[in-house]
Structure formats: C-alpha cells, structure tokens
Task: structure prediction
Amino acid sequence: MRASRPPRLADWLLFRLASGSKRHSLVGDLHEQYERGRSSLWYWRQAAEAIILNLGMSLGRNALALGLFWIFSFALVQSGQRLLGGWPASETGQLMGCVGGVLVAIQLRARGALVITAGLSAFSASELLIHLIYGLRAAQGGPTHFAVMGAALLGVVLGTTLARPPSHAVFDARG
Amino acid sequence: MAKRDVVGGFELQVLLAVMRLGDDAYGVPISDTIEKASGREVAAGSIYITLDRLESKGLVTSRMGESTPERGGRAKTYYQITGKGVRAVRHAQRTLVRLWRGVPHLEGGRA
Result:
C-alpha cells in the first residue's frame, strides 16, 4: 500500500459534482491507479475531467428536457386557448404539458428538470382542481395562492425524491 | 441496424476493449487497453460516460464486483458485451472495411 492517500478534496468534489450512477466505481478506479503510482496531479486532472464531463452532460440533458417541456406546454396551452375556447382547456393543457415534462425529464435522466416539472405539475393540478371546484372567479384570493404554492412545494419535494442520487430510483430503472 | 445502435469511434474502442478483456472488463483495464492501443491517455470519466451510454443502448450489461483496499473499499463495476453489442461492432467493422477499400493512399498498408 502507498503511504499517502489520494487527494480527499478531489474525492469530495467528485461525489458532489459528478452525477453519474457509477461514480463509486469511478472513484475506486482512480484510487486503484493512484495506488499503482499515479501522481496527485494526475488524480486531480482525472477528477476535474470527470466533473466537467458529467456537468456538461447533465446541463445538456436538462436544457433539452426543459426546452422540449416548454415547446410541448406552449403548444398545448395555445391550442386550449385558441382552438378550444380558453379555460378549462388551457389549464388542462398546462397540466398535460407539465406531466409530459416530467416524463421527458425521466426519459432523459435530467434531475433538475424533473424537480422543476414535478413542482409545476403539482401547481397546475391544484390550480385546475380549485378552479373546477370553486369556480374561476371565486378562487382568486390569498388562500388559493397558498394552496397552489403549497402543492407546488410538495411537487418539488416529490421531484427531488424521485431524482435523489443515492437510490437512482427512477433513473436506474432504465439501466 | 437501428440508427440508435450505430456506434461512434470512442464507443467502438470501448466495446472492443470490453470484448478483449472478457470477464475482467472494468474501468481500469478498459482504459489501459485503449491507452496501449491508441498511445494516448484516456480520461476515466469519459470511459464511464461511454459505458453508461452503451448500457442504455443495450450494447453492454454491468454487474457489481468485489471491493478491495487499494480501491478505498469501493466495488468494481464489470461490463459484458451483449449480442446486440457484438452485432453493432460487426456492423461498424463492415462499414469501416468497405470505406477502407479503394482509398489510394491506404492501399497496401502504406500511410
């Protein structure tokens, strides 16, 4: 065994910034090569490249997921607004767009986009529900806003749980 | 062959390394094999991103292996090529051989 340890800060950064599901194996590989005599500089370079590659991939996936979500939602809301006479078709379209965004985010393994679209889905669902039960004009006050914002918060928590790295519950199901 | 199953240059190198290594195909020997063949250093991160992509395409499968003290107690992830992966490699080989033929500067192995 080598006397010195691999740079701890590099490991810490890898675990926090590299989102790949195999990052434990990646860190293990780097440790193994360090034990074989690779330098600390080599270790830092490999860690930095892995972080940059992962962040780049992650940003690309999230941008694509959010872009597709926006186009899909815009098309549905506009169709509801212009072709189907506005409310409730427009709000239903908004909800369908948000749910579609969740599915796209899961398909593309985009964690950030999943959290955002899950929050927006819950927001849209609660807004639509309140408007359907109490009417469009009756439900404009403070309690309504608190209700929909609370639902959005729950949606964000749900999205965060689904996208949580340790379990990879949703993303690893696809391999 | 579906468009999605067509492999790129680095994907092909990783698949060939996995095939060569057989039961011992995990991150370190895969990058060693590619480094020896290409003569240039390979980023460990790029190996895993590529393997992840190949796995999502169904061209390789993975299984967790043993952890050792020299790896800081972290397990190895072993990879194995699938039948679909072998077909993708054969397709890439045939494509390259067809393109190779009749290129005047490369005839007879001269650069």
Residues 35 and 66 of chain B are 24 Å apart (CA to CA).
